[in-house]
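Hey all, sorry for the wall of text incoming. These are the three entities for the joint prediction.
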Amino acid sequence: MSVTTATPTRIMEPLWRVRLRLAWRSFKTGWNIFRENPIGLIGLGMIAFFGLMALAHPLLIATVWPPNIYDPLMGYDKEIISHPSPPTWIPNAAAEIKSLRPLPALRHILGTDPLGRDVLSQLMSSTQSEFALGMMAALITVVVETTLGAVTAYYGGVIDMVFMRIADVMIMLPFIPLMIVLSAMFDFQMLHLALVYGILVGFGGNSLVIKSQALTLKVKAYIEAAKVAGGNDLHIIFTHLIPNLLPLAFLSMMITVTNAIFIEAVLSFFGLINIRMSWGIMIQITQAAGYLLTSWKYWYLMFPAGLSISFLCSAFYLVGRAMDAVVNPRLRKR
Amino acid sequence: MSTKKWFVLAGFLVVLALAFAACATPTPVEIIKTVIVTEEVMVEGTPVVKEVVKEVVITATPAPVEPTADPNAPKEGGQGDVFRAAILEDLTTLNYWSAYGPINSSMWNYVVEGTYHPIAYGIGYHRWDYAPAIADGMPTDLEQEGDFWVSTVKIRKDGMWSDGNPVTAHDWAWTADVALKLNLQGNWSGYDPNYLDHIEAVDDNTAKLYYHTKPGLAIHQYGVLGKPWMSKAFWGPMVDPLVERMVTESEGLDKESDAYTALVTEITQQLETLDATGEPSAGAWVFGQWEAGAYIENVRHENYFDYMRQVTEYANGGFKQVSGDYTYTSGDTSQVELEYTEGPWFDKTIFSIYSSDAAVLALDAGEVGFVITPNGLSEGQVAQLEPNPNVSIVTNVANGFRYLSFNFNRPALAEKALRQAIACVVDKEFLTQSVLQGAAIPVNTIVPESNAYWYNPEVPLFCEGMTTQERMVESVRILKEAGYTWDTEPAWNDARGGSVDYGVGLKGPDGQYIPEFTLLAPTAGYDPLRATTGVYIEQWMQQLGMPVKAQLINFNRILELRASGDWDMYILGWGLGVEPSYACDFLQRDSGWNFGAYNSEEFETLCNAYKAETDRDKAREIAMDFQEVLAEDLPYLYLFTTPLYDAWDNTQVMFPFTEVADGIGGGAYGLQEYVLSVQ
Amino acid sequence: MGKYILKRLVQIVITLFIFQTLLFVVLTAMPGDVTNRMFGNPDIPPEAIEQAKERLGLNDPILVQYARWWRNFATGDLGVSFSEYPKPVIDIIVERVPRTLTLFLTATLIQFTVGFTSGRVLAWQRGGLVEYGSTLVGVLLFTVFTPWFGLMMIFIFGARLRWLPLGKFLDPRIWSAAKIPGLADSASKGNFVFNRMLLTASIILILWLAILVLTRKLNSFQRRRILWGGTAGLLAVAGIVWALSGVGHLAWDIIVHMILPVITVTLVGYGGTMLLTRQTMLDTLREDYIQTARAKGVPEVMVRNKHAARNALLPVLTNLIIGIPFTLSGGIITETIFSWPGMGRTLLNATAAEDVPLIMGVFSFIGILSLLAHLVADLTYAFLDPRIRYA
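and here's what came out:
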């Protein structure tokens, strides 16, 4: 863009608006490509569904669900004599549920768990923490991997060598066992998990991909121009290099979310992590109480949490794949 | 090249492979054969000609074996001759020096190997009757003889090791000697060097126990008299050199010195890694085979001395046993309550390793006859087995308790009134009946109710049987009486169907705010009962305005924090023995387990008296007293114990009795000596 | 090439050093140790715990422990396990590796074959219901919560339908009576059979590859005949040898017990392979030589199977080789669920017990395996892809 040929009004437009406009435009093109792929839309729909679940939980607790019955941890339905109890809407449920009086059909849509708590409420409140974990882990990963990728690509030399060796080790590390060992030894909470996970992944394979991308950018003319113009290294890295790496990083973010949620579930399942409620813990409680291999009768203990983990993981993965086509033009349909 | 040629090549390759395989299978192998060799050996200084079993390595090429018949075809004799039990973990060692030692305390070793070694006196599984095992009659009372306190034990003449040697007093004396000289720890420390000096084998059938300090019940009757004997004939040649080295090298070494520790370390390590292959058994079962990770097989011991032991239990506590030529009777023998005969009644026991859920499925499918679980089956597993008519289920009570421990090093928690208020507001009935669905049974004293002889039913309780409202009012009263105040006092609120308006800003008698506490409990994954209880107790304490936060953390982490002293409250559990000297172990001032630094003169005196008491009934009186002191002082707030479900396949096995403390699986390891075949 | 391998080897040694050091630092940094567990046992006085610590070398300075760790590692002595005391770690590893290998190599091979074949077909079906449907199924399987899925498999096929065993790797009813001639009573019959199964599989694989190489120059029809005939022949021979060996029924018992875990691992893993194959196939299809082949009028099937699939095989194969150590350790879930006494379950138990030597041993093993796999993957790439030349 040449300044001399621009009209005064164009010059008046502040830089941030130009940037915003450009971003909006690239978003629109991206969205159009994304939209072509029903797979991505399905994923997005699933994420939206879980998002609504997460948002609805506090609202329901505030309005129609008295906390003494519906609290995911402390709730307890005294009307029902024996727990776990099947969903109340099932015809003939009354015969199965030993309750003091007939219960409305929507009282426990997914029944109660072995400790008398509402399964649906647990499911919904866990959704919040799964989202939080996934987002935190993904954010940390993106920050670590883009910074690392950009810095090592930009400087090269010793920094690059050290980083490469570390990346080698990280790639080599068997991930699930490592997380199991770490969380068993150190008392992990959700935040710790996100942090450790994000850093380990950030240092590992993803950053290699980002680095190679950064290497191709590094030799582009505008970087050279910025260097010649006397921009300092940090400025170049953060204003020129990293913004151009973000689409790629964003792609890996989706996979990171998937994996983080999965790992949390595995750790919870083995009882290695210090959180009070999550989908993994719901399965763990079912197993510890001995209902996991019992019979179809207890489907409301076996399926909701197990399937939710699968669906939410898939959803992010699907969106990631669809975004792949946006970021990586080679994959588009011709 | 033509196709034909290629087929020829392929054919050649096949032939080559065949030839290779044919050569590969019956390769010469080393066969270890046992032969009997006569040789001269030294027995206690005198040369004796003796038959010695030796292993000789022979190299041979085995003949190809015919393929075995269809493995799915039923074996001759059906299932009746094999007791199939599911266990949940693998063994770690066959070396009992190690299994009974401190590092290796896996229950599963005892399940399988626990029956191999004879003991002088045992405790019955059913009613905890104390009776002679390989001893003949009761020991003589402790008498002073010179510097020593001495008791004499007669030993039966018909005890046999499975290698054909008789079980004698020498085995016992030797085992005790090794344990004392090598300073063995863990369960071996029952041969307690602080009391026991040595055991003398007067002759094959008389042992004399010499104590340098007068031992109490826990050391003598429930200690040395119940510790396992090892076979001197088998272990002697391997262990004696170690003992000798220990004696010579430790001479002049200070027991506190590093050199001494290093020596003990090295020698113990050698002892614990000795090869136990071929170790004889004197018990009901002899080791058969062990396929690591899959199963262990025990074989019936043909010469078991207690085989066909007739046991009669009488209603008023009387007990009678007839075993071979030996009869033992105690108590009032007027009204017979239960009679049974000891086996073993199976030719083999196979312990298969399953995960807990798979074990239940296997029982359901008839693959195993019984599941040995340390903590019983879970509610869901019971629900799963209930519809199966072939499976019988019984409930027993665990001899143990989960408890809330207070750290007395925190000044606020060292206040008795505060602990009592907590004890009052914690509604054990609600917790166990409603929340935990009857998966737990309230416990009120350090001796659970199931341990009837030692249990004190009259300990003081706080707010027993009160409603939620009454509990709140009463605990507020207790606190007020002790001088506690609030910014906002907790109040009962009728508006929302009855609930508590939480108190705010509790201040101690000194006018200071109570600092924030952390309540540690294991994660829901490790133990849902304790996790849930932790969260409930947190809420109840918060109702009273106590600033407490429950933290559900990794079990190992709780142990670490507890050991470090950096904790306020925790919820853990104890599994208990029969005789309640454990109370002193847990809470006496200088005990290593008194993590909460409980310190009470009264309790200290009672414990010391208890430890010195040798008479069971007198000891019981003292035990009643210290239970009361503890229930009043509340260093522990006892919460609950759990029912233990045991299930077995009633088409395969049956039990002469099913009432067993800690459960048939957890307490009696499947009653292997008594279990009967249904056929 | 030789120079490249040398360079890689040096890199591997450095990486191994970093890996081991990191491992040591992390494991020693953890709070507490195995003696924690003894605090739970009222029969063990605190003095004994102190003595046990001394015995296990836990009171030594960190550097001494670090040096000992390297010395032991170099001599192959990985110390004594705490939780399975007094077993040496190396014995535990030697005992469990064949079991893990047998299960997971089988599963990986099947998973790879199925995944690659279906991915190849899938790449051809763009935009249709088939693509979306199978992608969805693939993704669902790829992201399914494995412990839950494994338990469901046991529940359905083991408990409800009773077609397959409920976990474990053998049936004691068969094994307890079996006698293996020449094997000492205390030796593991299981490992005897496992090792020979692995040996058989390797021999079959080598001979099969030999046939593959020898028939390279034949035309496709003849080649296929020989390949199929050879494969069938090899399998038949192996079957006969096993049947005659006297332990055939034991091997068969193991195979029956492997079915369910193998199906589970395959289902969970194949989604990933399928999606990857499809991706690389799509990449390849854009290459000019494919366009050329099509323009020449080469039939679509030929283009797909000969031109495209072969090039797509490379990254997938590499991924597979690199993935082997991960499958081994990822077995932590599968092995726990199916009571399979392999490395994964060992690691989980060791972790729960804070058994540092065992954790170290297992991790070192996985680490070394992983490094070797990377090397093999690199070399395979170098050999198979003419475009890559290593200086």
